[in-house]
């Protein structure tokens, strides 16, 4: 009997792409299903995850606050402040630096830095923790005992990351403005005109949008990392692969959310595009 003919290269590539697309769709569907379970079971009494929630809050804040403050200050002082002040200084318009920082810090840097730090520090730790539990069959043991892993493990971690993202957005705003003050003082300019243009361009809507974007980032990061942690296969090596996949997916999601959210915000509120 003759052996089966090999597939042409184009057909093999098409099959590989189809399988990859199917895998992506399966992953997205699984994450959406986990998000629905978190909402349904998190709002259903009894609320037994209080101790775990406090432990996760303390853990995430402890490991993430310093990288967040350092990153927010460095990005505000370095790429943003030095470049913007050098350009505006050519025209003798350093007072307009406040308007630039309103866009840089409030609209973009604060929630973006929060998301990057939460995903890279806290998200990876959560994914590795749940992955290790899955490899050691602790989650299966919880199911045998009648304990829902989603309610007892995933829900407190999602609430903790969303809460910490809102808190860290405030810290990122403070650290970013501190970097702006250092830039102004470094250029021997008065702080009064800087803060005048900053508050003339700042609106409560942009601050609310910054908090909302940070909360969305926290929810997406927590769902992605928890899903990848609970789906670990292949032992300790599988935990490492899951963490890598979770970080890549989180960063791609951060970029997509930032683009869509900002476009919707500007499209529904044209006044935000008018310099004042």
Automatic annotation (TrEMBL):
Sequence intervals crossing the membrane: 24-43, 55-75, 87-106, 112-132, 153-185, 211-230, 242-266
Region forming the signal peptide: none
InterPro entries cross-referenced by the UniProt entry: Permease_MalE
Keyword Nucleotide-binding assigned: no
Annotated protein name in UniProt: ABC transporter permease
Keywords, comma-separated and alphabetical: Membrane, Transmembrane, Transmembrane helix
Domain of life the protein comes from: Bacteria
Pfam families per record: MlaE
Keyword Transmembrane helix in annotation: yes
């Amino acid at each position: 009997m003759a052996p089966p003919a090999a597939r042409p290269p184009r057909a093999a590539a098409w099959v590989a792409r189809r399988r990859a697309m199917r895998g992506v769709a399966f992953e997205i569907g699984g994450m959406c299903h986990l998000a629905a379970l978190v909402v349904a079971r998190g709002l259903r009494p009894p609320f037994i995850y209080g101790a775990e929630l406090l432990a996760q809050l303390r853990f995430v804040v402890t490991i993430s606050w310093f990288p967040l403050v350092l990153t927010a200050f460095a990005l505000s002082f370095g790429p943003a402040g030095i470049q913007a002040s050098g350009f505006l200084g050519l025209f003798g318009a350093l007072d307009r630096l406040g308007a630039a920082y309103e866009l840089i810090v409030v609209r973009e840097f604060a929630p973006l830095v929060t998301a990057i730090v939460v995903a890279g520090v806290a998200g990876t730790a959560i994914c590795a923790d749940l992955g290790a539990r899955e490899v050691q069959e602790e989650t299966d043991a919880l199911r045998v005992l009648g304990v829902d892993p989603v309610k007892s493990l995933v829900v407190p971690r999602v609430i903790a990351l969303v809460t910490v993202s809102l808190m860290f957005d405030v810290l990122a705003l403070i650290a970013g403005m501190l970097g702006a003050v250092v830039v102004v003082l470094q250029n021997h300019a008065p702080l009064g005109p800087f803060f005048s243009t900053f508050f003339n361009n700042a609106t409560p809507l942009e601050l609310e949008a910054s908090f909302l974007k940070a909360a969305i980032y926290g929810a997406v990061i927590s769902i992605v990392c928890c899903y990848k942690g609970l789906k670990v296969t292949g032992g300790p090596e599988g935990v490492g692969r899951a963490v890598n996949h979770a970080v890549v997916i989180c960063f791609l999601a951060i970029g997509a959310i930032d683009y869509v959210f900002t476009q919707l915000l500007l499209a529904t509120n044209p006044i935000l595009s008018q310099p004042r």
